[in-house]
Every structure is written in structure tokens, then in C-alpha cells.
Amino acid sequence: MTSNEIRSLSDLRIGESGVIDDILAPRSLTRRLLEMGLTGGTRLELIRLAPLGDPLEVSVRGYRLTLRRDEAQAVRLRM
């Protein structure tokens, strides 16, 4: 993996982390994710996956946040 690789949050494995580069979603979802603290330049780490892979639990800004897989697919991370 190179430091410039861009991946979706939903593609991370447990323990992997990245920095938010972009959110590719409709305006309403983008706004909701921004309000939850998922802003550009913020580092996050995948902590846990539910048994069927949905939802995902991430650590961001010192707290844990649970996202549905479709929401996580919209979040692009710089690795």
C-alpha cells in the first residue's frame, strides 16, 4: 500500500486506519456524516464489524461511531 492510495471506508480491515479525503454521497448523507465529525483530514480506524459485515464501528476523534456499510462506502480515505 502506498501513502497516496484512496480506499473506501467499507474496504478497510479491522485495525486499519486512514485519513478522510472525500465523501461521495448525496448532500443529505454528506451533511449527516460531517455533523458526526467525519470531516476532511480526520483520521479514523476500523474497530469492529458486525457478524454479517454491517454495521461497522470506527474510532474517530476519540469516540466510537457505528455506520451502515452503504454510508461507509461513501467515505474515501487516504491510506
Highlighted features:
globular, 6 strands, 79 residues
Structure description:
The protein contains two helices and six strands. The chain has a six-stranded antiparallel beta sheet with strand order 1-6-2-3-4-5. It has a single domain (6-78), classed as Ferrous iron transport protein A (FeoA) (SH3 type barrels), CATH 2.30.30.90. The chain is globular. It has 79 residues and is of the alpha+beta class. A hairpin with a 6-residue loop joins strand 3 and strand 4 (56-60). Helix content is 19%, strand content 39%. The termini are close together.
Cα shape: globular
Helix content: 10-25%
User: Strand share of the residues?
Assistant: 35-45%
CATH class (first level) name: Mainly Beta
Mean pLDDT: 93
Q: Please give the domain count.
A: 1
**Major sheet: arrangement of strands:** 1-6-2-3-4-5
What gyration radius follows from the Cα positions, in whole Å? Answer: 11 Å
Q: List the helices and strands in order.
A: EEHEEEHE
* Biggest beta-sheet profile: 6 strands, antiparallel
User: What is the strand tally?
Assistant: 6
CATH superfamily: Ferrous iron transport protein A (FeoA)
Which secondary-structure class do the elements indicate? alpha+beta
**Corresponding CATH architecture:** Roll
Low-confidence stretches: none
Number of helices: 2
From the 3D structure, determine the CATH topology: SH3 type barrels
